[in-house]
Amino acid sequence: MMTLKAAQAIAGSLGYPSKMPGTAYGISAKACVTGAKLAQIPGSVCHGCYALKANYLYPSVATAHDKRLAGIADPAWTAAMVTLLTAAHESGIGRNGPIASGWHRWHDSGDLQSVEHLTKICAVAAMTPKIRHWLPTRELGIVKAYEKAGGTVPKNLVIRVSATMVDGAPTAAWSTTSTVHHNKRHAGRACVAPKQEGKCGDCRACWNPRVKNVSYHLH
Prior knowledge:
Layout: H1 4-11, E1 23-25, H2 34-38, H3 59-71, H4 77-91, E2 93-94, E3 97-98, E4 103-106, H5 115-126, E5 132-137, H6 140-148, E6 157-162, E7 177-181, E8 189-190, E9 213-217
Parallel strand pairs: 1-4, 4-5, 5-6, 6-7, 7-9, 8-9
Antiparallel strand pairs: 2-3
Helix pairs in contact: 1-4, 4-5, 5-6
């Protein structure tokens, strides 16, 4: 067993986004592998990235992101994340009050760093079967390398590989995807948040493996 204090010393703190249910976990978008390149390309889904401005520039947020990023390399990171998630979702209480237990988003800021990183995330999901995990990513190469190496994705984890360009078609190389639309929306479920004050509300499409593509309006 690991204490919450010990878990936070390794993995940092969880996030509790008011726009989404449950918990989240983010690292700096500056550490994105593919995203850092896409951010320099007009028309890409990462150009003008929300996680590189506004509140994400506060020193306290940057410090928290750096701590989480460094913690991934710790051998006890998986156990630490399991401890943090289990405690939060069993209590149903977040930093600002009650949360919708059972729903977790990986990387509301940042993205996968390596196959080892994805391996650890899958282990965390497998060890927290009562929580539905959603992992949006632009790192198709990492996801496919994990799969090629024999890695499996737990049933309670939905990995959504994002299209790289606004109005671009979803990749055919992965079964669950996401796109960003401005003038052209591709097949699948359109995100309802813009019609609900920017919040998920009761929608859980992103976590639902039966929803093959979720399309987000450019913002």
